[in-house]
Amino acid sequence: MDSKPKRRGAMENGDTGEDLVVATMIGNGEDLGHLVRRSFEVGRPEALVHQLKHVVKKKEVEIEELCKTHYEDFILAVDELRGVLVDADELKSNLSSDNFKLQEVGSALLEKLEELLESFSIKKNVTEAIKMSKICVEVLELCVKCNTYLSAGQFFLALKTVDLIETNYLQNIPVNAIKIVIRKNIPIIKAHIEKKVTADFNEWLACIRSSAKDIGQTAIGHAASVRQRDEEMLERQRKAEELNISGLGDTVYSLDVEELDEDSVLKFDLTPLYRAYHIHSCLGVQEQFCEYYYKNRLLQLNSDLQLSSSTPFVESYQTYLAQIAGYFIVEDRVLRTSGGLLSADQVETMWETTVTKLASVLEEQFSHMDSATHLLLVKDYIALLGATLTQYGYEVGSILEALDNSRDKYHELLLEECRQQIANVISNDTYKQMVITKDSDYDNNVLAFHLQTSDVMPAFPYIAPFSSMVPDCCRIVRSFIKGSVDYLSSGVNSIFYDAARKYLDKLLIDVLNEVVLTTVQSEGIAVSQAMQIAANITFLERACDFFLQHAAQLCGIPVRSVERPKASLTAKAVLKTSRDAAYVALLKLVNSKLDEFLALTENINWTSEEISQNNSEYMNEVVFYLDSVFSTALQILPLDALYKVGCGALEHISNSIVAAFLTDSVKRFNANAVMVINHDLQVLENFADERFDSTGLSEIYKEGSFRSCLIEARQLINLLSSSQPENFANLVIREKSYNALDHKKVASIIEKFKDSADGIFGSLSTRNTKTSSRKKSMDMLKKRLKDFN
């Protein structure tokens, strides 16, 4: 019973362990948050509240005990505090008195201070106003400058002024109205500047396009001057080398150096372009302007590449090509100097487009041309265009390939023109030897083409062995070589000698040789004309070496390289063959004329009863004609040709005599006819021997004289005149004395031979023994030949 109260008292006094813990934590200032959370988590907050109340009561008890312990000290402190309150009241009274006095003294100062502060405020406002005004004045001054620049067209300065306002002043303008106006007008000003600059640039585009032709023509003219200067230098060098080779002089080399700045030669203004590009860069639309420039220039290029349908190409090609050259010269300078306005790829694209179009245009126009001169002029200008643009780094190989593709076309036209010229020269030729009366004519007509037969200058007047046709044709060939080399020299290949030689051979073979051969083989040509043409062919053949050397010189090939035998023209051999053909044609004409004179079946009385002691009239005409032919040929033809013509004519006469015995119109003949022909043949043989010796042929041809050409006729006459014709049947005798006779022809001829007069009393005439024996021998021969056949 006693224990329970004691326990409750202990709990009331707060002596439990939990209360001590809480009290200790509070005393240490620790955080009780986790205890509070824990009590609520376990659902027992009442116990915690009870513990806290117990702690509060305990602390109250401690405070009460503390106050009891220090009661006296507390009373003393209260007394002291009352003393402090008295002192404080006294101090307050003093302060109030001093404050009243201070207010009386400082009221005037306070008024002055207020006035000073007001002045300071006014000063600050005025300073701010001045600063704002200064900013506004500066901005307005910049606006005025901008307007002035705009009015003067100084758009870059105007734009820089706008940028200055926008960057440094716009955000600091104190007057909102001014700021709004300026901010509103800045885009308008920029748009105005861009519009004006674009307008100026468009004007420049039109101007530079109209100037491109003059730019191109100036550049091409400069290239032509450079080429001419180079050609003159090469010509001087070639002549010096020729003099050095021939030992006539020392080689002198000179180097002419002339450096010209292309930009100084070609003056055109790119300032509007630079200004427009720079201003657009400042406006931040640089790429847009680059695209605009490229697009418009490409449109101009496409327009320039279109040919005018109203003007023939041969009349407009210079303007057309100069426009293209000027265009790309401008683009080259823009690429080099504009600082990124144009890229190399863009220029390359435009150039590739131009090359493709230009090659197509050239091929089409070349295919329609019918004049080699026009084609050469166009080609030459294109070559100058290529040389001009090559200096600016453009690749012109495709354009030059178009020239190479048309070279066959050009040479076809050139060959046809030369054919007409040569045909006109030959048709207008007098076929008479040229008479040269002065040195200059000799140089121009003989030495110029290496036609001289001697290195010694002849006396004048000089009668050349050829007619005017030869130097005239040589001039045509020389002109052809010049035209051919001029065309070939502008191609892709720098070595074009083989091509020039090929076309030269084609001219000489297919044109010159063909026309000459056709002329000499045509009907109605006289013997003297044929003879002169044959002589002319000889000199044309000799001129082939000059033609080859001339082509080599123009092609820049050393002359010594074409002086080798294997390097000669094929046409030389062809002309030699044609010369022989001309001799054949000449011989045909001579033989035809001889046939007119001979007419043996009509001029010979094959059964005459009397023996004529006089020369036959026809033989006199034959000898006279042959004499004139030989005399003319000796002056014109070389000795070998004279020999061929003489042998051919005499062989023809011999064959005609034999053929006369074989002709059906001669039914029979007697010894008198044989004697007449024998006499005529002796006259002809004497003429042949005299001419063979007088012409000097006897010194050249030791065997095979003119007389030998009459051998068949002579052996036949000898057989028919022989007292023992049966010896022909003897192989040894026949091989020795009658080797030129055919036994079949002899058999036919002796069948017609009647060794008696053809009169009424022929059978009663006196016959001697010799005649009878010859007749028997002839009959024996007839029998043997019949048996042999």
Automatic annotation (TrEMBL):
InterPro entries: EXOC6/Sec15, EXOC6/Sec15_C, EXOC6/Sec15_C_dom1, EXOC6_Sec15_N, EXOC6PINT-1/Sec15/Tip20_C_dom2
UniProt keyword Phosphoprotein, yes or no: no
Ranges for domain Exocyst complex subunit EXOC6/Sec15 C-terminal: 400-752
Alphabetic keyword roster: Coiled coil, Exocytosis, Transport
Gene3D superfamilies referenced in this protein's UniProt entry, alphabetically: Dsl1p vesicle tethering complex, Tip20p subunit, domain D, Exocyst complex subunit Sec15 C-terminal domain, N-terminal subdomain
Record Pfam families: EXOC6_Sec15_N, Sec15_C
Domain of life according to the entry: Eukaryota
Residue ranges of domain Exocyst complex component EXOC6/Sec15 N-terminal in the record: 51-220
Chain's role: Component of the exocyst complex involved in the docking of exocytic vesicles with fusion sites on the plasma membrane.
Family: Belongs to the SEC15 family.
Protein name: Exocyst complex component
Organism for this UniProt entry: Hibiscus sabdariffa
Lineage start: Eukaryota, Viridiplantae, Streptophyta, Embryophyta, Tracheophyta
